[in-house]
Amino acid sequence: MKAAVRAGAILLCLLAAARGHAACNVSATGVNFGPYDVFSTVPRDSTGSVTVSCDEVPPPDPVISIGPSGNSGGFFPRTMRRSGGPGTLEYNLFTDPSMTSVWGDGAAGTNTVNLKNVHRQKPPVVVPIYGRIPPGQDAPSGTYGDSLTVTINW
Q1: For position 119, what pLDDT does the model report?
Q2: Do 69 and 79 contact (CB within 8 A), yes or no?
Q3: Contact (CB, 8 A) for 76 and 104
Q4: Distances, alpha carbon 44 to alpha carbons 26, 107, 121, 132, in Å
Q5: SS3 string of 13-55?
Q6: What pLDDT is recorded for position 115?
Q7: pLDDT at residue 101 in the model
Q8: DSSP secondary structure string, the chain?
């Protein structure tokens, strides 16, 4: 019997810019893992993204960080919680497609992403977010989620 588990991490954007800096727009697409098979022996991977565009000349080298899990309060691991009942799923977000560098705030062994290609009135810069749920987690059926904060520091 397969358990129907749907999981996704919701990303909330926060633009932290010093007064007088460029007018920039930041948005994030959450990582939607879709169905998780509790009997699978392979991880469940998915992607999301952070998009940055500026109407004026941006300050140099903005840095994107993603905060800790709203459920676990940490990065190792981040945790999704089942909606309307008990149950959790461990997961994490990464800066690289090989999923070796945990995307965080630069503390506790996590990494941030430096943007170097944001220009005034040019196409937006889209930065992928790589997500993974490790296999072998015994999770009850249901919908799982977590809320994270994405911060851009100029």
Answers
A1: 66
A2: yes
A3: no
A4: 27, 26, 37, 6
A5: EEEECCCCCCCEEEEEECEEEEEECCCCCCCEEEEEEEEEEEC
A6: 83
A7: 97
A8: ----EEEEEEEEEEEE--TT---EEEEEE-EEEEEE-TT-SS-EEEEEEEEEEESSPPPS--EEEE---TTTSSSTTEEEEETTSS-EEEEEEESSTT--SBBSSSSTT-B-EE-----BTSPPEEEEEEEEE-S-----SEEEEEEEEEEEE-
What residues form DSSP beta bridges with 34? 7
User: What is the structure's pLDDT at 37?
Assistant: 92
- Residue 38 dihedral angles phi and psi, to the nearest 5°: -65, -15
The torsion of the CA quartet 35, 39, 42, 48, rounded to 10 degrees, works out to 20
**Residues 53, 40: Cα–Cα separation, whole Å:** 39
Find out whether 117 and 22 touch, Cβ atoms under 8 Å.
Answer: no
The pair of structure tokens assigned to 123 is: 């196409």
CB 45 within 8 A of CB 135: no
pLDDT for res 5: 58
**Local mean pLDDT, 10-residue blocks, the chain (154 residues):** 50 44 77 92 95 77 90 94 92 96 94 80 86 95 91 82
